[in-house]
Amino acid sequence: MKKKFWIAMLVFGLMGQIAWVVENMYFNVFIYKMFNASASDISAMVMASAVMAALTTIVMGTLSDKLGKRKAFMSFGYIIWGITIVVFAYLKNVIGVIVMDCVMTFFGSTANDAAYNAWLTDSGNATNRGKIEGINAMMPLISILVVFGSFMSFNLDSMASWKTIFYIIGILTTLIGILGLFIIEDVPGLKKSDSSFIDTLIYSFRVSTYRENKELYKVLLGFAIFGISIQVFMPYLIIYYEKTLELSNYVLVMAPAIIIAAVVTAFYGRVYDSKGFAYSIVWPLVMLIGGYILLYCFTNIVLVFIGSMLMMSGYLCGMSVFGAKIRDLIPENKAGQFQGVRIIGQVFVPGLIGPYIGSAVLKNADVILNSDGTTSFLPNANIFMAALIVIVLLTGYLMLFSKKDIKR
After folding, report:
1. Residue 302, Cβ neighbours under 10 Å: how many?
2. HSE of 338 in the Cβ direction (CA atoms, 13 Å)?
3. At 367, phi and psi to the nearest 5?
4. What's the pTM?
5. Is 68 helix (H, G, I), strand (E, B) or coil?
6. What is 333-391 written as a DSSP string?
7. What is the mean predicted confidence (pLDDT) over 177-198?
8. Cα–Cα distance for residue pair 18/12, rounded to 1 Å
């Protein structure tokens, strides 16, 4: 593959994930610290964003197929995405953040979830899909490392720090979009869809399409259950480290775990290429289960580190395996049309159900008194037990697959 492809993939993949990490892991911290948000507020924000991401990806992924274009959606989407991130520097309350999060998600999902992911699917084939997904799946962990390391220099209890953060992330995202105008190339032979927009839009939701691609939809359901487990605890993870475990230096604890998980993920994609889905999905689930058990049972910093390393390795390796299998199963020249059902499995269903479970688990969580007289909830380790239960259910679901259901 061309060197320009790998450069574009790394640049767009990393910057996109940095922006998503700030949203998925730090918007929760932002409204928690600045506006004393409750677990219900955080859950509502994640759910609203998930709905917007799914709807946007369905419509804009279809439009990119209809027009036979990826580059324009990626580049201009990133440019506007960055501008919307800057707007967060001027928001004053939780409601404003939730509404603007949905606006930002529209442009982010257009650029990343719909166009970028369709472009990756267009660009790969059966010989290199696992390699591409292994590298692509590293991006969330590398972005977490970048964000964690960068945020160490900021006082996250200060609104001035948050304004600086939003400006930096927003401007960088916009600059990447501009760069994309020069380095992104649509895959040769990418054709416009001859069907009407409505027919193209509903294609992946037809019963006939399901019947022709049963294996794809079964894998997507498994991916959704996997994502639910992650979303049970992820919105509360940093708050749990910092406030509940009182790890003021949680970045220093997490950084080595993230680096190790990133390296594991980079190489694990090749396991999928050589062994297939049925074999390669097993070890990510084992790592997740081990990580959840350690994080639920222990607060010792060493065991928390090991648990976090296993959890992150299982999470990213699992994303890599599911992602590669889904791309392999998507019919040729229909990548954009299938980004909608992919995002429903990856974001929409997990974003609705996972945070709801997490919020329910934390309903009677302990509270702390803030210096300004307000109170804030303290996440507890029950979020990891709830996530573990979901992964056990996923394991049972995957075991129901016969060799006929999942080929290789």
Report:
1. 10
2. 23
3. -125, 155
4. 0.76
5. coil
6. T-HHHHHHHHHIIIIIHHHHHHHHHHHHHTTT--EEE-TTS-EEE---THHHHHHHHHH
7. 84
8. 10
CB 124 within 8 A of CB 327: yes
Phi, psi for residue 375 in degrees, rounded to 5:
-120, 155
Q: Quick one: DSSP state of residue 205?
A: G
Q: Which CATH number is 3-399's, of 1.10.10.10, 1.20.1250.20, 2.40.30.10, 2.60.120.200?
A: 1.20.1250.20
Cα 68 off chain centre by: 26
pLDDT (0 to 100) of residue 294: 97
Residue type, 314: G
pLDDT single digits (tens) 337-393: 786 787 788 888 998 899 889 989 998 888 887 776 677 889 999 999 999 999 999
Provide CB contacts within 8 A for 399, sequence distance 6+: none
Where b means 16+ CB within 10 Å and e means fewer, 319-332 reads bbbbbbbbbbbbee
